[in-house]
Amino acid sequence: MDEIRTTVIVLAAGQGKRMQSSVHKQYLLIKDKPILYYSLKAFEESVIDDIVLVVGEGEEDFCQKEILGKYGFCKVRAVVSGGKERYHSVANGIRSIGWECDYIFIHDGARPFVDGGILERVYSAVRQCRACVVGMPVKDTIKIADQKGYVESTPDRSRLWQVQTPQVFERQLIAEAYEKLLTEERNLLAAGITITDDAMVVEHFMHVPVKLVQGSYENIKITTPEDLRTAEIFARDIRHFTRGSVPEK
């Protein structure tokens, strides 16, 4: 049997405007290391064979020197420029994969607390389901508002999940889905359809069911200054930087 090959696309091209910082959020520090360092370290020590790092245009040399070279990440096989929107960056990452790959993981570089347990679960799931995303059941009651700001309905909380990354797919499935997205981009925008994650692309264009896989409430995306303070609290516990066992292929 041929060896299964995996590649992760780590998205680090965002400007992080809500962080209210002149430094892009993925380069802000937690325990004296950039936020981006921690997710790259998790993948470096995991089932992942290759890493594609997607960064802001003009930041390629900086990342090569200050992130990859400085911390000795050996699995990063390509550093590519991002695009205008998140889905453009994902598409650039997918198109850059010129090597054998069976499954593609897509992860937000601003989620530093991905760990070995999460990767074990999602890797096992994608081999059975073709498409899966990490997430957690919501804790709060959710309200759907009407256009005037009044409550329109209250969905059943037991069926609601907050979606995280990584999101993982068969390579051919996600590649075809993104090519269809780029072809239909203008029509989607005209219809007011906003693509906010990779699962939506597969759901909309490929009609393939996407499996929800348990992540962690600590697998937060650092978006605002409040998130950074929360991350610093998590980082005080050394367990958050123990990546767990490496899943077998």
Structure keywords:
single chain, 249 residues, two-stranded antiparallel sheet
Structural account:
The protein has 249 residues and is α/β, with parallel strands linked by helices. Helices cover 34% and strands 22% of the residues. Strands 5-4-1-6-10-7-11 form a seven-stranded mixed beta sheet, with helices on both faces. A hairpin with a 5-residue loop joins strand 8 (144-145) and strand 9. Helix 3 (86-95) packs across helix 5 (171-183) and helix 5 crosses helix 7.
Structural Rg: 18 Å
Number of separate helices: 8
Q: Which of globular, elongated, flat, extended, rod-shaped describes the shape?
A: globular
Q: What percentage of residues falls in helices of 4 or more residues?
A: 25-40%
The strand order across the widest sheet is: 5-4-1-6-10-7-11
Concise summary:
By secondary structure, the chain is of the alpha/beta class. The chain has helices at about 35-45, 60-70, 85-95, 115-130, 170-185, 185-190, 200-205, 225-235; strands at about 5-10, 30, 35, 50-55, 75-80, 105-110, 130-135, 145, 150-155, 160-170, 210-215. It has 8 helices and 11 strands.
